[in-house]
Backbone:
């Protein structure tokens, strides 16, 4: 019975489903004026009754997606055996995607030619090199932890906790075996390296638009702070074999992450782009399904998303595929590792 | 001068090649002394990323300016503005300039721009680019 499962549902995944749906609900408001559902439109179109109607239908779809996701999280689908959470997330995302693609199809007839004008401010300088050190520092810390672990194996508690519940008590322990200890470190190292790659990419390989809007909202700076915060969080978690109580540090990093996320949601990508011309300095044809950016002629590895917060990868570049391979490797390793612990 | 914004704008729909648009605008800034010798221009990669064009396009523009003696190119570190001695123009250059000017005036006049507007545009451009040296220079 579904109503019984409410008491036993996974609260984290239910919150994830609700948070994702809430963001998706707000997304039409957060998109920049010259773009609607990833289609270049006249900024006036965004104020038209036609657009309001499309948004209304889209939001109904998002509400249905949240409902569907929660149903799965509550155990409405049999046979998932512990995978209710990820399945709930996937169900919500698929229904949202259908709503988005329908809204995009309804917006396409109102498409206008995007501006072909591009700007670059030659007086702007690259971010200082010290920021690169800030990105790399957690990786160096993790390498030091790896060295310490190797040199002081006997000092590692056996078993030691790797996860804490909401009550602050450890709820997952692992034995002091090379596979477990180095497995956790490898997994965290892979995730941190990926976050570092993104952080570095946002700093040095992403398009920075000229114009006062950028400086006013500091949108990229907050986004970078979010990724760096996550990287430091992961690096702090990697010090677990040292037996240090890192919870206060993690709480600080979590507070920074939450504040950055809320700031980004409130400000939205509108701050990151000039609203003077239709479009966002990217051609419509390069946006596959309105989500994936594929433009081999664009030197930027990261461009701002048309629908959603933050940046997306330019899949038209070979470097993007290296990044995807880097992303899949720790994820694959992590999945295999978690399965081995579970068994 | 050093801290003011130096924005270049390109139009991808223009018949003028993008590398020429970039080189022309940077040259105009250099002539107007918006960059002093010893100042560094952003790297090719950075400009290409900001403009959303290929690296080679920006590299071509930088190479043209380096060949004209405006820039010294350093791999990975951008382009250094160098002090450049103005060459004495050959009769061929002056004649080509006159021809281009006449063609341009005819073109904009045919498009309906008034003679007063043409004069004022020329004066404005000359003042912006040539400044104090605009008047009384050798002919």
Residues:
């Amino acid at each position: 019975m579904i109503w019984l499962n409410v008491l036993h549902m996974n609260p984290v995944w239910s919150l994830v489903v609700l948070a994702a749906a809430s963001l998706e609900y707000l997304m039409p408001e957060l998109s920049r004026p010259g773009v609607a559902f990833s289609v270049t439109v006249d900024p006036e179109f965004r104020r038209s009754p036609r657009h309001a109607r499309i948004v209304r239908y889209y939001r109904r779809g998002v509400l249905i997606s949240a409902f569907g996701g929660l149903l799965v999280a509550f155990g409405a689908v049999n046979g998932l055996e512990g995978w209710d959470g990820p399945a709930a997330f996937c169900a919500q995302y698929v229904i949202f995607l259908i709503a988005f693609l329908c809204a995009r199809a309804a917006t396409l007839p109102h498409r206008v030619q995007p501006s072909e004008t591009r700007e670059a401010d030659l007086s702007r300088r690259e971010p200082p090199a010290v920021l690169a050190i800030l990105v790399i520092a957690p990786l160096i810390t993790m390498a030091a932890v790896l060295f310490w672990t190797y040199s002081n194996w006997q000092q590692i508690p056996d078993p030691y906790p790797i996860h804490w519940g909401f009550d602050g008590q450890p709820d997952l322990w692992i034995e002091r075996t090379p596979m477990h200890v180095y497995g956790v470190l490898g997994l965290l190292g892979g995730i941190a390296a990926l976050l570092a790659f993104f952080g570095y990419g946002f700093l040095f390989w992403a398009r920075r638009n000229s114009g006062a809007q950028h400086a006013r909202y500091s949108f990229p700076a907050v986004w970078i702070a979010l990724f760096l915060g996550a990287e430091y969080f992961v690096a702090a978690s990697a010090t677990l074999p040292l037996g240090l109580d890192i919870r206060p540090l993690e709480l600080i990093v979590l507070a920074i992450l939450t504040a950055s996320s809320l700031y980004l949601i409130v400000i939205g990508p509108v701050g990151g782009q000039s609203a003077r011309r239709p479009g966002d300095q990217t051609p419509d044809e390069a946006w596959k399904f309105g989500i994936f950016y594929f433009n081999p002629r664009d030197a930027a590895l990261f461009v701002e998303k048309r629908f959603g917060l933050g940046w997306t990868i330019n899949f038209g570049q070979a470097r993007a595929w290296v990044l995807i391979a880097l992303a899949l490797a720790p994820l694959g390793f992590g999945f295999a590792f978690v399965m081995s612990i579970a068994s | 001068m050093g801290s003011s914004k130096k924005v270049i704008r390109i139009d991808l729909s223009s018949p003028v090649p993008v590398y020429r648009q970039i080189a022309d605008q940077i040259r105009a800034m250099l002539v107007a002394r918006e960059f002093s010798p010893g100042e560094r221009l952003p790297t090719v990669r950075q400009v290409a990323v900001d403009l959303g064009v290929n690296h080679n396009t920006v590299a071509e523009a930088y190479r043209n300016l380096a060949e004209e003696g405006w820039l010294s190119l350093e791999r990975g570190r951008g382009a250094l503005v160098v002090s450049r001695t103005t060459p004495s123009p050959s009769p061929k250059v002056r004649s080509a300039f006159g021809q281009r000017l006449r063609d341009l005036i005819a073109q904009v006049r045919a498009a309906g721009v008034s003679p007063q507007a043409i004069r004022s545009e020329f004066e404005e451009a000359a003042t912006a680019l040539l400044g104090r040296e605009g008047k009384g220079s050798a002919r």
Notes: The mean pLDDT of chain B is 85. The interface with chain A takes residues 2-14, 26, 29, 41-43, 45-55 of chain B (CB under 8 Å).
